[in-house]
Specification:
By secondary structure, this protein is mainly α. It has two domains: 11-210 and 318-348, HUPs (Rossmann fold); 223-316, Tyrosyl-Transfer RNA Synthetase. The chain has helices at 11-25, 44-60, 83-97, 113-117, 119-123, 128-133, 135-143, 151-165, 179-196, 235-243, 261-274, 278-285, 289-316, 319-348, and strands spanning 31-36, 63-68, 104-108, 171-174, 204-207. Strands 1-2-3 form a three-stranded parallel sheet. Strands 4-5 form a two-stranded parallel sheet. The termini are far apart. Bound molecules: tryptophan.
């Protein structure tokens, strides 16, 4: 597909291309860590942006860790609501898309104390000024609905360093917005090793060419805005959501993300589901207008998601098994976190 071919290539993108070459040659050299906040159902934006890529990396033979970042939910809200439901939803989605618990470790923050403990020495390695300069944090503060900004909002990038470094993750698949966080992780790893001796790798970002899918209301697709098709949605829910999507008055369908964001995002969604070029999809619909466009998108989403949804429904019949996947992942994460914390104790000279 050629969606991002015409964008300029940044140093981070060049580095990612080099990493892709290394991944193909020696996948065993990499340990990947990624995560999701359990704030709602994963949707098609997540699928094409990151989930799909995790399965690809797993299948290449990379050691993959997936964090359910439950403490990080509290960065921008007072209480983490319906946590059990959201966590179980994530687990079902992971299994349904093909993450294999024998090869991929799924765990959650609050179940791995030694990971969280790393945050204390890590906090000593960054200045308050550095934390305040993080553009992603600044943006999140600007959009926060909370009356006061909590300490966790400023420090969660340090927590994220602990997420990555507890297992010595050396590759982190991210979107652009997470790059400042990864820079903090790299700084912390470097400073720790300078002060106390070599313990941590300096992880690389693996930028995914994440396609920009908008929500059905034409704004950013979000778990909590009710403007996205969840992976686990039914065919009818999918049809209803897409039927209500924002389009425009021009009957002739084109792929032009700048001038026609709503229409183009729908075209792109169909193209991604069909593994086709968005311009070709738009040409084919031509003068069919929004009605044909929406029918095309609905059919494409429903047939692409059908096997995933079928597997999801199968797993949902055995929630005992689904919960055991997280328990086993947490056990493995705890063993690794405790071993790393011991190395940190020895390096820092704290008694044990
Ligand atoms: N901040 C990420 C998000 O909001 C989730 C996350 C938590 C994460 N810890 C991480 C991602 C470590 C990559 C690495 O989506």
């Amino acid at each position: 597909m050629t969606i991002t071919d015409d964008l300029p290539v940044s140093p981070a993108e060049r580095r990612s291309a080099e990493l892709e070459r290394q991944l193909a040659e020696a996948p065993g050299r990499f340990r990947v860590l990624t995560g999701d906040r359990p704030t709602g159902a994963l949707h098609l934006g997540h699928y094409f942006g990151t989930l799909h890529n995790r399965v690809r990396l797993q299948n290449l033979g990379v050691d993959v860790f997936v964090l359910i970042a439950d403490y990080q939910v509290l960065t921008d809200r007072d209480v983490a609501e319906r946590l059990t439901e959201h966590v179980e939803g994530l687990l079902l989605d992971y299994l349904a898309i093909g993450l294999d618990p024998a090869r991929t470790t799924v765990f959650n923050h609050s179940a791995v104390p030694a990971l969280n403990q790393l945050m204390l020495p890590f906090l000593s390695l960054v200045s308050v000024a550095e934390l305040g300069r993080n553009p992603t944090v600044k943006d999140e503060i600007a959009h926060s609905r909370q009356a006061a900004v909590s300490g966790l909002m400023y420090t969660y990038p340090v927590h994220q360093a602990a997420d990555i470094l507890f297992c010595k993750g050396n590759l982190v698949p991210v979107g652009q917005d997470q790059l400042p966080h990864l820079e903090i992780t790299r700084t912390i790893a470097r400073r720790f090793d300078e002060r106390y001796g070599a313990v941590f790798p300096e992880p690389d970002a693996l930028l995914s060419a994440a396609p920009l899918l908008l929500g059905t209301d034409g704004t950013k697709m979000s778990k909590s805005r009710n403007n996205s098709v969840a992976l686990g949605a039914s065919e009818d829910e999918t049809a209803r959501l897409i039927k209500g999507a924002t389009t425009d008055a021009d009957r002739h369908i084109t792929y032009d993300p700048e001038a026609r964001p709503g229409v183009s995002s729908l075209v792109l969604l169909a193209a991604l589901c069909l593994d086709r070029d968005p311009h070709a999809v738009a040409d084919e619909i031509g003068d069919g207008g929004a009605a044909v466009l929406k029918r095309t998108v609905t059919d494409a989403v429903n047939s692409r998601m059908a096997p995933i949804r079928a597997r999801r429904a199968e797993y949902a019949k055995d929630m005992g098994y689904v919960r055991s996947v997280l328990r086993a992942g947490n056990e493995r994460a705890n063993a690794i976190a405790e071993a790393t914390l011991d190395e940190v104790r020895d390096a820092m000279g704290t008694p044990r």
